[in-house]
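Thread: pyridoxal-5'-phosphate complex, take 2
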Amino acid sequence: MRYTSTRDQRVSKTGQQAIKQGISEEGGLFVLPHLTDYRLNLQNLLGKDYETIAQNVLTTLLPDFNTAALKKAIQFAYHKNFSDRRLTPVRSVGDFHVLELFHGPTSAFKDLGLQLLPQLMRLALDPEDRIMILAATSGDTGTAALQGFKNVAQTGITVFYPDHGVSPIQERQMLTTTGNNTRVFPIGGNFDQAQSAVKDLFTDTGFAARLQAEQVTLSAANSINIGRLIPQVVYYFSAYLQLVESGAIELGQKVNFTVPTGNFGDVLAGFYAKLMGLPIHQLIAAANANHELADFLETGIYDRNRPFLKTVAPSMDIQISSNLERLLYYKSGEDSSYVAKLMEELATTGRYQVRPDVLAAIQADFAGGFAADAQIAASIAAVWKQNDYLLDPHTAVGYHVMQQYRETTGDSTPNVLLATASPYKFPRAVAQALDLPVTGDDFAVMTQLHQMSGVPIPANLARLATLTAQPKHVVAPEEMGQAIIAAAKEVFNNDQRVRSGNKR
Ligand SMILES: *Cc1c(COP(=O)(O)O)cnc(C)c1O
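Output below.
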């Protein structure tokens, strides 16, 4: 089995090559053809812990990795770094279930992918490799990637985030990261500009040559890296098995998952789980006021020619859902030249329309919807009032769209809502939604919210207020390349520990 590119089916890579490289030379994303050939046996997974389920998913999708080494990597990533023994516990809230994905070191779901990706990357590297990880972040990816990659041998990580485009807590999480191989830069631009600039650098041969002169190659930690997507498949299986084990559903019964969506990585992992045999009826992709994706799921037209909006769910303030490209690949019958044509249209006109048969195939698995800021606030208030459960603004987007879906379709399939961040990561928006008198900085609001709700504050967030932040150094999008070269020089030339290849 070989990974290929969404834009060129002649590309053929092992899992290790795909993870190391991050993105294909011609700009496509790595995908595994015929995913339905890789079904898991649910019966065998019943009663197993998260790490064992992860082991099953990973050995299935990454068979070129050594099994014992994979097991160690999973253990290293997950054994001690999560505050809940089940990693991603499912809670019943009213008449639906919440899959809590925020018990990792940065309190957002991205920890599930980004604790494991660096370990997979390490296994994929040759002894002489020196890799600079590049990430553009709308907040949570950067934080989680910095935590995952800090002090990992043979790697450096450079993160760009939109200045004023992430929450104060997220910014503080990034600017207080330790580790001698980590670099963080706010950029003067929005997330899509940061992400496009990062994508351009990956295909810029002149830039690659300059890095090569430092004997450094680039790789990606955004959800376009297959090594980040695959770990996310695991919690869909875990959630389903937890529901069977608790008696909430029977083995084989179908469920719906509602997923707050930005780059389409999280919900795509759910689609992978479905192709691998998980009984999923509908995947409900929930967007905020930047709802290009929700419109696409309804009309088959993706059109990003509209204003970029800042919302109270900033990690979903995204106009181009990169991972949708992988869905287009599968839903077009794995037609890479068709996908290449659509992506070319998107790049040149900001718009494309899929064929009716492709749209129908997508709609067979996906529903969509969106929530504006007012609906997010109303959802946070309603769930607190009715169920004593605190939603973060991203999860609240999902809640609104899940309810809307249930009302309009009458579909009575059991629902699992993915909770993608702790409410304490976005305390101001949550407190305002609950009509609390909001005073002081975000840490003061965090405490107020805790006093009102009694919900514990995750230790990593409570600790943040006491850490010293590094000074901000804003760079323009056109200066990003230079910043990376400088970071590579410092990280790899000054750091004996990284150069000598010690494992952390
Ligand atoms: C990244 C993020 C999302 C969106 O996930 P995608 O994989 O980009 O669709 C939703 N909620 C939170 C809290 C996030 O950090």
